Structure formats: C-alpha cells, structure tokens
Amino acid sequence: MPREKEAKRDTLTTRQGRPVTDNQNLRTIGDRGPATMENYHFLEKMSHFDREEVPERVVHARGTGAFGYFETYGKVGDEPVEKYTRAKVFSGEGKKTPLMVRFSTVAGAKDSPETERDPRGFAVKMYTEDGNWDLVGNNLKIFFIRDAMKFPDMIHAFKADPVSNVPDPTRMFDFVSRSPEATHMITFLFSPWGIPATYRHMQGSGVNTYKWVNDEGEAVLVKYHWEPKQGIRNLTQEDANYIQSRNVAHATQDLYTAIERGEYPEWELFVQIMEDGYHEELDFDPLDDTKLWPEDQFPWLPVGRMVLDENPTDFHAQIEQASFGTGVLVDGMDFSDDKMLIGRTFSYSDTQRYRVGANYLQVPVNAPKNKVRTNQHRGQLDHRNPEEGSSDPSINYEPSMIGGLEEAEEKAPQHQPTYNAAAMTKPIDRPNNYGQAGETYRNLADWEREELISNLSNVLSQCDERIQEAMVYHFSQADEEYGRLVKEGIEKKTQEMKDMQEEEMPGREAGEQSRYGKGTKSQQKATEEAVDKGNESEPY
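Structure (tokenized):
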C-alpha cells in the first residue's frame, strides 16, 4: 500500500522516549552478518517481552472484567441504612461510587474453557470516598469447606494430577468423600447451577459473613447477594459441551460485546442481616459458609444497584493485574469470626504481593481514588507520588514530635466484640452437613434434579468403588431418593461402559475405572480417537 494512503498515526518510541526509525531489522554487520551487542532497541524490546506476564493466579486464573458504578438506595429495605452501618458507600440515596468487577472460574488455568463445571468468582472493587472496598465472592452462595486450614488441600485435589498433569475427577471426589460438609456445594455444582450460561446471567454472593457497624459501634452480621437484572441462565452439560467446541472464551466475549453495544448488565445488591450471637434457634452455625440463611427468617433487603458500562482498554493492566482481598474494608464494616473469612483475608492479599509485587496497590486499577498517606514505601517498582508522604519527607515514621504523619481522629466508637473461651483447634458444634443439602436437592426443578443425577453418575462411575460408596452415603443422608438415584445411575453407567468395552475394546478389563494420571474413560477414549481419526500426511 502506498504510504500516503495509510492512516496518520503517532510515532513509535522506545520506553525511554526515543523515536524508533526501524522496528523491522536488527543491526548487523552486513545484511546477513552477525548482530551487534549494542542493539539497544531490540534488547529492550525482547527483554521486556520475556517478562511481560505476571504469574497466573493459583485460583481464579481464568477471568475477565469491566468497570461501572454502584448506586446506593440510602436504605436497607425500608429502614435508613445508618441504623446498621456508617459506611458512606451506602448513605445518600442516588450516590454513585465507581467500581470494577472481575468475573472468573476457580480451578482452571488462565486459558481454560469458560464452560467448565466450576464455581464462578464474582469480585467487586469499589473506589469509595473512604478508600477501597473489595467484596470478593462467588456466584454460588456457599462453599465446599468451612475451615481455611483445608483450603490448600482442597485446591490441590481439584486441580490436575501433579505427576501427569491430566485432570481427574477421582481426585476431587476422593477429597470430598472425606469432607461431608461439601455435600451441599456439590449438589449445587453438579446441577445446572455449576455452569452459568454467561457472567451477565449469574448471581453473585459475598459467601462469607461480615459485620456492619453503626455510629454507636453496634454491629450486626451481614451477608451480601447480587441479583442479575438480566435474569439467571444456566447450561446443561450437553449445551456446555457444544458451546465449548465452538468458543472457549464465550463468557468473556459475551460481556465485552454486550457492553460495547450498550446493553449494560446490571445487578441489584441485597443484604441479609442477623444479630451477632450463637442463635440457638438455628440448627446450624450462622458463621458456617457451607450454609444458607433462611430467607423467611432473614429476608433479602435491597440496598443498591451495580451497572457495568465500560470495557477495559488494556486487559493486562486493568483486569489481569486487578488485585482483591477480603480484608479490604472501609469504616462501618468489620470481620465476623467466620473461619474461612479469616483464612481468606491473609491469603488473598498475600498472593497479590507475590503475583504482582509488593507495590501492587500503586497499579492504577488497584489504587484508591481518595488521597493516600503512608509510610509504607520502597520495594520493587515503587513509583508513588511524593505527595503520598508527609510534608517532611525525612520523617517516614510515626509517632514523631516534630513532623510526619499522624493518626486520624476517631470520630465514632469502634466495634469491640468480647470473648470468654479457651483457644483450641476444634470443629464447630453444629455442623449439620446434610440438612440444607437435602433441602436444596428437593427445591431443584425436575429437569435440574435429572441433570444433577446424570452429571454425578457419569463422573462417579469413573471413580474408585470406595469413593462411590462414600458419596452415595453422603447423598442418602441428605435425601434418601437423592442417594438411591445416584447409586442407580452409577450402576447403569458402569454397565454401559462394560458393554461398550466388550463391543469396542475386547480383552480389556470390563468396568475399569479411572486411575490417577490416566483421566476418565471418556478422556482416554478421546485420546485414542485423536490418533485413530488422524489423517496421515507425507513429510516435506
């Protein structure tokens, strides 16, 4: 194309600002000769390319996001919000707070399909007038475990075999079979709720229990729920398989294109409120994140709405480097004694320091919009504004009599919970591992129960018989029909595999199940078919 027909563009420069006159060719001795060492532009370009990815997240690696705002109703249901919390983000009807959201899958790698059966992350960062507030949760409102001590083991079990790197459901169900508290979450995950159709059509939840604190320092327990105005849509396994064969990034593309064409997704934020305490009237511990709070006792109360109306302009800078933490709260909020929440609060922020760096909060997408004044400085890639320090930069400590920063004046009393118990390492005394799992099973629509039984039967039929027996026991404890149908489904699927092996693979042991490192029978068959269906070609 003649250069005069090209679009007018800005001049390319090095990262030091020098214009680049040749971005196509190395500097060499002769046009074929060896390259010279002083190829500064090439060395700078290539060395940065070698380092342009940060380590992917251990969990929630695959994700996308967008920007928008939260608009508060100024009320909790019909009551003024100030009755329960002094957090300014909820005060003043109609006030809008800028935010960004990152949606994700949990166990898959960075480029894994978005149709996988997996909880979806739902992380919201609000840039409030009192600093950042991160509400980090999932689409499903409960979790697999209730104690953070088990979290690394759970994630290890849910990921691929560490020897062969082949995914294997036996690993997950081996862990779950010894963790009865996971029965409720497994019931949701293997129903259609385990594969949301898109990020726009799924609910969100804080999952863990937090506290709201008012001007008097009084606190209540609170749970957060995001409800999509677009409606809720979930996929069957068959539908998910079809979509995955055509697009492994369908949910990312759906969110981006919806916002691009002006169909801004919206969620309404609801809270459930409970007085802090033991609550003897409940048959479960209200701090147990494997449980739902009954809506008839603790109704959903609307507090505001979220609208996403802006796409990222640089995915890596704004979405991949976005860093969240369950400990990122503002005044008027506090932690409950939820054991998973406490464990997550350390882990989330610590992993960002490893992944993005000690100064990850200076990355624009993570930085608060209000003024930052801190003596925490230095470290790799420290580029804070000098104004973030004190008027005397020589005094980078506190307290001081002669200058530097000082503590803020306490304008309202702090919440001061009191305790009188021995320190111990023991489980909670009201586990009730099966009650709500049974209720959830019975509340599913007929087609959802059929899909649940089918999905569990297909996967468990590949597992060790001891794991099958344990899982059927757990399901039976939740609901007799639930366990019986899964058992029958496993037997039926096992017989189908036996018949298939007798017809197609003579000489193999009938009913052979998954072994670590080999994957499921369907995975093994697909591997064989890839060779059998491959078309031979001549070398060139």
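Residues 497 and 511 are 6 Å apart (CA to CA). The first strand starts at residue 63 and ends at 72.
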